Amino acid sequence: MTTHESDPSNRPLLEVRDLKTQFRTDGPPVVASNEVSFSLDRGETMGLVGESGAGKSVTARSIMRLIDSPGEIVGGTVLFDGEDLLEKSEAEMRDIRGNRIAMIPQDPMSSLNPVMTVGEQITETIRRHQDVSAGEARELAIESMDEVGIPDAEERIDDYPHEFSGGMRQRVLVAIGFSCEPDLIMADEPTTALDVTTQAKILDLLNEMQRREGTAVLMITHNLGVVAQTCDHVGVMYAGNLVETAALDELFDRPRHPYTRALIDSIPEVGADYDELPTLEGAMPDLGDLPTGCHFAPRCPHATEVCTRDGNPPLESVGDSSSRAACLHAADLDLSEPTARESGTGRRETDRSGDPLFEVHNLKKYFSAGEGFLGNVRLTREDGRPTLERRYVKAVDDVSFDIYPGETVGLVGESGCGKSTVARSALRLLSPTDGEVYFEGTPLSELGSREIRSLRREMQMIFQDPQSSLNPRKTVGQIVGRAMEKHGIATGDEKRVRVRDLLERVGLARDAASKYPHEFSGGQQQRVAIAHALAVEPKLIVCDEPVSALDVSVQAQILNLLNEIQTEEDISYLFISHNIGVIRHICDRVAVMYLGKIVEFGSIEDVFSAPFHPYTESLLSAVPHANPDRETDRILLEGSVPSPIDPPSGCPFQTRCPKKIGDVCEREEPVLESIDEGGHRISCHLSTAEMSDRASFITPSEPPESRTADSD
Amino acid sequence: MYNYVLRRVGFMAVTLFFVTLIAFAVTNILPGDVALLILGPNATEKSLAALQTQLGLNRPLYVQYVDWVIGLLQGHMGESLRFGEPVAGLIAERLPRSLMLAFAATIVAVVLSVPLGVYAAINQNEAPDVTASMFAFVGISMPIFLWGLVFILVFAVWLNLFPTGGYVSPSEDLVGSLTRLVLPAGAMGFALTAYIMRMTRSSMLEVLSEEYINLARAKGMSQRVIVLRHALKNAIIPVITVIAFQFSYAFGGVVVLEEVFFWPGIGRLTLTAIQSRDIPLIQGCIIVVALIYMFSNFAADMLYAYFDPRIRYGGNE
Amino acid sequence: MTVEHETRDGRFTLTQSQRERIARFVRKFRNNTKAMVGLSLVVLLVLVAIFAPLIAPYNYEETNIQVRSQAPSAAHLFGTDDLGRDIFSRVVMGSRISLYVGFGAISGAIVIGAIIGVVAGYSGGLTDEILMRVMDAAMAFPPVLLALTLLVVLGPELSNVVIALAFVYTPYIARVSRSAALAERNEAYVEAAVARGESDTRIIFSEVFPNTMAPMLVQGSLNVSFAILAEASLSFLGLGAQPPKPSWGLMINTGRGFMETAPWMLLFPALAIGIAVVGFNMLGDGLRDVLDPKVEAIE
Question: What is the pTM for the complete model shown?
Answer without folding.
Answer: 0.79
